[in-house]
User: Fold this.
Amino acid sequence: MNTFRALRILNEQVVNCGRCPRLVAWREEVARVKRSAFRAEDYWGKPITGFGDPKARVLIVGLAPAAHGGNRTGRVFTGDRSGDFLYAALHRAGFANQPTSVHKRDGLRLTDCYITACVRCAPPANKPAPEERDNCLPFVAAELRLLPNVRVIVCLGSFAWDGVLRVLDSMGFAHRPRPRFGHGAEATVGPYVLLGCYHPSQQNTFTGRLTEAMLDAVLSRARELMS
Assistant:
């Protein structure tokens, strides 16, 4: 089975997942009630899949879709300020053909990069419970197995860093002592190099905790390491 077909089958499993009753109820409520600015739009209201180049050497892992971002548009980091910040940086780094990600049919293409999230449903207050995280992490493990060229994993935030380490533990790539998260942190775990990056949330980007230059530096380092 080729990678495209295998990823398509996995993505169907993701979209049909209903393991977490709290998250199912929340994502569907948000899609039904909607935000006034998006009242005329049809919300996705289901789990989101990974997105990008099946031949990617760089995997970017986030926390979860935003209630009115990915949960609305159906694509990871799409339709919210975090996505605006991230995709602009990916375009500057040569991983994306355009600097914006607005909806699933906007022509965006990624090269040598694949983006996913630890949790696939929008969580209340953007805070998944530990058991919800654990229900979702096998999807990340499955993606890693289906993306054989990945060499670098960029973890957006401490939640993603911890989630990726848990995934690698489950795949037999334990690392002791456990690497600590930090912006610019770097750790080799099994065949992968993990890079830490502050999450491009408004809380970080509006306060200057994460700047364009800081994210550009992480992506530049990912490009150096992926060969």
In short: The chain has a mean pLDDT of 97. Strands lie at 51-52, 58-62, 113-117, 152-156, 186-189, 192-197. The longest helix spans residues 130-146. The radius of gyration is 16 Å.
